[in-house]
Amino acid sequence: MEPLSDKEIRSSFVNCTKGEAGRLRLPLDFAELPWPDLDFLGWVDPGAPLRAHVVVPRESGPLGITLRVPGVTSASAVRTSLCQICLTSHASSGVNLLAAPLAGKPGRDGNSVGIYFCADLACPLYVRGKRQPKLRLGRYEESLTVDEKVARAMANLDAFIARVTAPAG
Questions:
Q1: How many of the other CB atoms lie within 10 Å of CB of 73?
Q2: Cα torsion at 111, 120, 162, 20 (round to 10°)?
Q3: What pLDDT sits at residue 169?
Q4: What's the pLDDT tens digit per position in 100-135?
Q5: How far is Cα 132 from Cα 90, in angstroms, rounded to an integer?
Q6: Strands 51-56 and 95-101: what pairing?
Q7: Angle at the Cα of 116 (from 92 to 123), degrees rounded to 5?
Q8: How far is CA 66 from the centre of its chain?
Q9: Contacts of 127 (CB under 8 A, 6+ apart)
Q10: pLDDT tens digits, one per residue of 53-69
């Protein structure tokens, strides 16, 4: 992924207001991000830990969505969880259900879609083996190459973003 500026990131969001995008906080390590290892930029807002943000490069320019962590219930306390983007297995605290308001009027009316995502939104680093889950739960042996895993993760993320940005119908 090519490095993005603060302005490019803030103007990319499709499911929040310009004011909300202006108030979000960028990752604390923004100046040191490993851009070449990122297929998308994902982070938990340091000023609002129940908010997360994802920015995906597109030919037309970056596309950002904001997500929220719904209230945690005891029912979510399972032993292991699987990220639906990169398919990394984590202890239950390593995966969060994130909900994204839909773009446009449906989102303003309170409609959203959810997905189980690595809690730190570092899927590109897990896919490349540059980060490991905190608790080693045993990884499924796959015959896919890193490029194939990246393509799969991006296809999963693209499918989720399509649900967020789909026109009301």
A1: 8
A2: 50
A3: 61
A4: 999 999 999 999 999 999 999 999 999 999 998 887
A5: 9
A6: unpaired
A7: 90
A8: 9
A9: 39, 86, 88, 146, 149, 150, 153
A10: 999 999 999 999 999 98
More confident site: 93 or 54:
54
Q: Measure the CA–CA gap between 122 and 134, rounded to whole angstroms.
A: 13
Quick: pLDDT tens for 13-34: 999 999 999 999 999 999 999 9
Give the residues across from 27 on adjacent strands.
none
Domain boundaries, the chain: 6-165
Asked whether residue 38 carries a pLDDT value surpassing 70, the answer given is yes
What is the Cα–Cα distance from 59 to 68, expressed in whole angstroms? 26
- pTM across the whole model: 0.86
Q: The tokens of 7 are what?
A: 């302005």
Per DSSP, the residues of 132-159 read --SS---PPP----HHHHHHHHHHHHHH
Helical (H) or strand (E) element with 51:
strand 51-56
Tokens read off for 118 = 């690595």
Q: Which two tokens stand for residue 78?
A: 């399972």
Tokens at residue 141, please?
Answer: 């042996």
